[in-house]
Design brief:
281 residues, alpha+beta, three-stranded mixed sheet, two-stranded antiparallel ribbon, transmembrane, transmembrane helix, membrane
Length: 281
């Protein structure tokens, strides 16, 4: 199987590649072409810009080292045709893009094929994001259910050395932090609130809050400084910096709540849901 790969074992062939995705909301668009990048008019849209900048900088690029990238985004990805045909293409899953990427890793590791899954850093795609809380909730509940399904199917890869970085690092981290992390996060908010109610404000509570807040803020501002050059208007970085300041206390708690709801309702009949899109020229 993969003779075309084995014929050049000194070269690592790209099995799949994902591009960089940025929110389209707020951009100037004409005839399907982005003439000038801009930030969304709503705070909901801006915090998603920050989230996307951070996710692709620290998440996708970071996991690519060691061939541990678990997802080629469904919005913007390319696959080597023969690899895709050999594994049967997309499956019936809410997290079809991640599920497909994991099956690629599984098959390539079993075949010991010298292939990689990468992020093409110079390939940029613009996609509309939800700007109402209702639409955002629909999307994120679906995403988290899809994440749970995609992680459950290849559970036999977890902590198996034969699957390299994917099995020994990426999958355990995604199980512990991406899938179950919202439960811990929401519990932390509850414990902090209970502590403040029963014990009153204290230096300990303030320190815990400050550490968590500054950790998230540092990640977001680093991503903004590194990747925010996409936005040419002098006002845009200031608007996004404001979103960075508000995101840890307004946006992330909501995401944690919705993700926990997704886990609690996993047995319900899966549905894609609808998200309102704006008409573009």
């Amino acid at each position: 199987m993969y003779d075309f790969i084995r014929s050049a074992v000194t070269v690592q062939v790209i099995a799949a590649a994902g591009g960089v995705v940025r929110p389209l909301n707020g951009c100037e668009v004409s005839q399907g072409e982005v003439l000038q990048a801009g930030v969304p008019a709503t705070l909901t849209g801006r915090v998603q810009v920050v989230e996307y900048l951070r996710a692709f900088l620290s998440g996708r690029f970071g996991w690519e080292t060691g061939n541990g990238l678990l997802i080629v985004s469904g919005a913007f990805g390319m696959f080597r045709k023969q690899v895709l045909l050999d594994i049967g293409g997309y499956a019936d899953s809410l997290g079809e893009d991640m599920e497909l990427t994991l099956r690629i890793h599984h098959r390539l590791a079993d075949e010991k094929a010298p292939c990689r899954v990468i992020t093409a850093v110079d390939a940029l795609c613009w996609a509309q994001v939800p700007e109402t809380l209702r639409d955002l909730k629909t999307q994120r509940v679906r995403w988290h259910r899809g994440l749970a399904d995609a992680l459950w199917r290849p559970r036999g890869m977890v902590l198996r050395p034969r699957y390299g970085t994917v099995g020994m690092a990426a999958l355990p981290v995604f199980w512990a932090i991406e899938l179950l992390g919202p439960v811990v996060e929401l519990a932390g908010y509850g414990l902090l609130a209970a502590f403040l109610v029963t014990q009153g404000p204290s230096a300990t509570a303030l320190l815990v809050f400050a550490m968590a807040y500054l950790h998230g803020l540092t990640q977001s501002l680093t991503a903004l400084v590194t990747e925010g050059r996409t936005y040419p208007s002098p006002e845009d970085p200031l608007l996004l910096a404001g979103a960075c300041l508000l995101e840890p206390v307004l946006y992330r708690p909501l995401l944690a709540l919705w993700r926990c709801e997704a886990l609690l309702t996993m047995k319900r009949r899966p549905r894609w849901g609808t998200v309102t899109r704006s008409r573009l020229s």
